[in-house]
Write a structure and sequence with these properties.
Layout: H1 10-16, H2 18-35, H3 40-56, H4 60-84, H5 91-96, E1 106-118, E2 122-134, E3 137-150, E4 166-171, H6 187-193, E5 198-202, E6 208-212, H7 219-237, H8 240-251, H9 259-267, H10 278-292, H11 299-316, H12 321-338, H13 345-359, H14 367-394, H15 410-420, H16 423-431, H17 451-473, H18 475-482, H19 489-514, H20 518-545, H21 560-564, H22 566-578, H23 587-611, E7 623-627, E8 636-639, E9 645-648, H24 671-683, E10 687-692, H25 698-710, E11 712-718, H26 726-737, E12 741-744, E13 749-753, E14 756-761, E15 779-784, E16 787-791, H27 797-805, E17 814-816, H28 828-834, E18 838-841, H29 854-862, E19 866-869, H30 870-873, E20 876-880, E21 885-889, H31 890-893
Parallel strand pairs: 3-5, 9-10, 10-11, 11-12, 16-17, 17-18, 18-19
Antiparallel strand pairs: 1-2, 1-4, 2-3, 4-6, 7-8, 7-20, 8-9, 13-14, 14-15, 15-16, 20-21
Length: 894
Amino acid sequence: MSERMVVPSPVKTFSLNPLMWLAGAFAAGIAFAEVVDVAAVGAAVVALVAGSAAVILRDRSVFRWLCIGALAAAGAFSNSVEITSVSHDRIKFLYDTGVIVSGDPVEIFGTLGGPIDPMREGVSFTIDAERIIYKQTERPALGTVKVFLRHPSTGDAVELPPTGSTVAVVCNAERDEQYLNPGVVSRLVLLDQQGIDVRCSVKSPLLIETLSVPAWRGPVDHAYQLRRRMIAEFTLRYTPETAGVLAAANLGNKQFLDRETASAFREGGVFHILVISGLHITFIGGLILWIVRRVTRRRMVQFTLAAVSLWIFVIAVGANPPAVRAGLMMTLLLIGFVFYRRAHVLNVLGASVLLLLMWNPADLFNPSFQLTVTTVGGIIALGMPLITKLRSIGEWTPSAGQPFPPLVPTWLRRCCETLYWRDTKWAIESRGNIWSANLFKKPYLALAEMPVLQRSLIFVFEGAVISLVAQMAMLPLGVYLFHRLAFGSIVLNLWIGGFMAVAGIASVLAFAFTQVSEWAALPFVGITEAATQAMVFVPKLFAGWSTGGRMPVYSGAGKAIYLLYYVPFVAATAAVYLWAPFERRLRSVWLRPLVGASVVAVVVLSSVMIIAPFTAPAATGKLRIDFLDVGQGDSILVTFPNGETMLIDGGGRMNFGADEDPDFEPDIPRIGETVVSEFLWEKGYRRIDHIVATHADTDHIQGLVDVARNFEIGRAYLPVSPDEDRDLDELWDALVRQNAEIVQGMWFEQVEIGGARVEFLETNRNGSNAVSENDLSIVLRITYGSRSMLFTGDIEERGEAVLLAANADLAVDVVKVAHHGSRTSSMPEFVERTRPIYAVIPVGRKSMFGHPHGEVVDRWVAAGARVLTTGERGTVTIETDGSEIWASDFLSVQ
């Protein structure tokens, strides 16, 4: 009797899902090797000994643990090998070691691989490199090169040879860091995660030479061509918004997405629908299998046709990592189908993870991989079992295996019966039994009499459960990576999923009928446009209600909370997995407290991550100035002695293309979002007390628009612009939505913040005598104790002359050099009057304007200043207690 009360041994769980356990062990070994310096030889010995012992020993429990230990050691070994075994002929090795200087001209020879992706202004493609010529020296060079080719000035479309052709490209390939700031992801890391060694832009097709063309074009190349034709058809027949959504969601090309639509999907937490991922691959795989099963009944032929077709689609849409992972999982499920076995989904997930990590151990640290595994793992380990058990409660009828009703609370039983009970089904079953019984069901609503409504509610309920479980599974990653938690996606996933399926099928039919008759395609074009517009309407509505205030993150040891969350979450998942509603054993005695404690812990940890009460740094009693590296632009964070913050400018992207469409803003990363906001979130801020826009140039003000949308803003100081300005208007609108206090035109004003004095100096009151709008920049002087700093915006000679004529006290310890070190500023008289200890120049690593100009740097150095540039050193930090003053930079503290 006592034996039947004992919970089944973990050995059974291990035997049911061995690959899940082994994949977890392999991943743990990779993570351990990343944190601890594990010698490759030691890991190999451990793996060999453990594997040998596993074969020799007969005890199943010992065998299990030795297998897990062997896989952990193999994971550590594989990670060590990957780190230390980069070939000296690898392109990234040549650039990282300085053999080739990033940005220098090179000629790359290789094979055209992957799809040619159309873009609004050109095309992009990859080259599998074989050799490279640098400074007239040819050497072997292996790796992947991402090439961007602009359309010719004539506007004609670019024609490239087919996939598999050998080409030579002359370009200035780049592999270097872009923005060096705390919290900002390294560009080298991003390139490695994408499997790209270097990137380069080519301005003319004449710089690409075709050396050879393959004699035979395979099915993949034909799929690439079909994809390009469909994208061209989408952009021709549909509105830009619809074309962008169709190209992204159906064909994996996000180059035509507009910023407004993409932002709405991100804010709603449903941007994954616009990326070819598990959702799309599962749908496509199921559709292909459904079709081939009607062509042939031979399962091996079905598997071959379905798998080949599925992988052609995966490759044709770019073979991005999420699509490859989903394709691999679907293939494993199909293998089980061939052998008449119903593959256990947890085991399939484990097999997929194990194979992917064996192929590339670094994927474990790829956010895309982490999101896929946690989301899919949560759904199949918690969501699907939970729905299955709720169904069994609602549909229960007496049987040999389940003779007694479920032992669950009355409210839960009645809810399940409301959704799942059908009298007609029971009537049919009871007629086939040799015994009779009366069942008394008490649903809250008699939905069994309305089957259409019942099925609709089941679809909505189960979809909501899956969406909720997915959100809870990825909650720490969503907060840490995206700084948002969109529970609205629980509803949006259902809304968008249905319309996306309609739009996808209709668009394919429209394309097919277009090849025969334009008139025949029109109804499907209309259906596609209507379904897409209906689909994007609700995300935009949700985005319209959003008021900003996204979540900061914990740094340092505080990051452990994101891993700690998964302890109670996994415990709750295990409890639900083991929950048996029809068993009368003592298992429920410990399951209920486990579930209760786990739920409480999940709620507490979620609240600590979402509300983030302990992220903001404590006041230090010092004045701190962080000059951010935003490339060609300014962004400066001032932290006052009492902890209040002031952000002076926010950087921004400089656009110089003459052919840009003013009515279409592409969905490209903006500096305010990916650099400035990430820096502030890493610092732990949810609110910025003061922001200052010195003037309306894009490289100063555009980033403040994103900051105003992402953070709570106390007060904003804005310039008086003589003309209408799009960025300034966007900033004003964002501030109004935040209910921020807006102040314009501050001259000779003083503000006391935390013991520091902030003065707004006059450069040009009415702007009538300004030579350029730069001279309208707001200029600030901040004084704390005996130390002072001067922030000059982009003032030029005229603005500096106004300050000198006003006899302002310009002798300071720190100067933010005006206009990025341009020769139009920093006049000798101005430099002589200020004579700072530090002269900080915010400027890009490679300025297209040649900033900072050499004579300007020499002028500040001659005045006794130590010149610091953000382009060379990353974030430059000045700190003072009012008496002493210190300087540091990003590279020096790494």
